Amino acid sequence: MTGFxxxxxxxxxxxxxxxxxxxxxxxxxxxxxMGLEICGSDxxxxxxxxxxxxxxxxxxxxxxxENIDEDVSFIVRTAAVHDDNPExxxxxxxxxxxxxxxxxxxxxxxDYKNALCxxxxxxxxxxxxxxxxxxxxxxxxxxxxxxxxxxxxxxGHRVGKGDTIVMESCEYYNxxxxxxxxxxxxxxxxxxxxxxFKDLEDVKASFRKFASQVPEYGYIVxxxxxxxxxxALKSLNREIVTFGLSxxxxxxxENIERKGALTEFDIMHKGALFTHVxxxxxxxxxxxxxxxxxxxxxxxxxxxxxxxxxxxxxxGAGRRFEFKGKFNGADVYDDYAHxxxxxxxxxxxxxPLGYNRTIVVFQPxxxxxxxxxxxxxxxxLSRPDLTYLADIYAARESNTLGVSSADLAEKIPGAVYLGSxxxxxxxxxxxxxxxxxxxxxxxxxVYKLGEHLVESEKITSACDLKSYVSx
Length: 471
Description:
Shape: globular
Distance between the termini: 73 Å
Number of helices: 15
Helix content: 25-40%
Radius of gyration: 23 Å
CATH topology of the largest domain: UDP-N-acetylmuramoyl-L-alanine:D-glutamate ligase
CATH architecture of the largest domain: 3-Layer(aba) Sandwich
Oligomer: single chain
Structural class: alpha/beta
CATH superfamily of the largest domain: Mur-like, catalytic domain
Largest sheet: 10 strands, mixed
Number of domains: 3
Strand order of the largest sheet: 8-7-9-6-10-11-12-13-14-15
């Protein structure tokens, strides 16, 4: 219990700081639908702030003590809002309770019969998106919170009227410990976020606690192929629903066939055929994600037809092997991979697709991750035919570790480090050829490079056409 539950009462007024954020704006909608009076603030105008206003939610732009109305009873803040924020300081002076957004979502989950929480070092956004497709096909009218954009929703969230909520659940800062899952999915466990966790054992302990919060009548769904996951859960003495690529799992795949970017396979459940799936996203890692989503669906009592239809309609989430367009005859894709395990899965998926060359532009994410996993990054980034390295995306950090992208480039055969997107784009324009695949990869803003490349091709083509027409 976080204490937030006692504020979930119709008529009580709450103020959300960072209300335009990716998980804060749907939180505002859900709270309003529960009968609360909601207002908030954000640093910038956006489509989300406009949408919230259209629902009758007051949104102030900029952070100021005056934004907090006299009749506000509680504050919820996004993770980016710290104690030195003027609204947080004012709230504390007034004795108002301040909650983290994960605490709010955790309390809200208790109002849903089914709370599906999808966790793991990799694959959370994709699997949460697949589960959303399945739940929509099954007409469960779910409430959804995803850490990326899903084309089906044209957003990263959905406020439904059904009895099921599905949430992407992140381990960083143990934030998923605030959640109250009835079904907890663990896709995999690797050493990551080592600026917060001490080591791999510390990460495993965090996932173990998350899984332990599932009630006895609920389900823990785990990757049978992942040694760290199974090791983390063995001391719980709970029955676990497993998924994997071999028949030692409860839910597993048989007869896997790759047909270009399409993957077809049978999903088996305890030795019997459950359904046949045509998956429109490549790679064995996506087969595993689909198996995880299916295992969760079986726990929810969803029929096989809805699973098959739901997965068949899934074409990927935003920034997950997302096709951006063409440049110089090369296909340009973007992917959020920022951990060596994610890079491996991405490259494993791309290599069988038959491109002449794989060109990767990688932007490392945080100095701490780059330093801690340096050798693993070198191993994976040595695989493409050509690797470009952009500067490290600092995110929340400053470089106190003395590590750089140039250091990576020195260890990767043939790698090119360039200090600006302009230089990278110039080099790519001179290099890209028909039959290549260009992958912009990382959790920062490297996607802008691929988008600019594709856009420049459109502008060039339009100019060429205009010139041709005028002749």
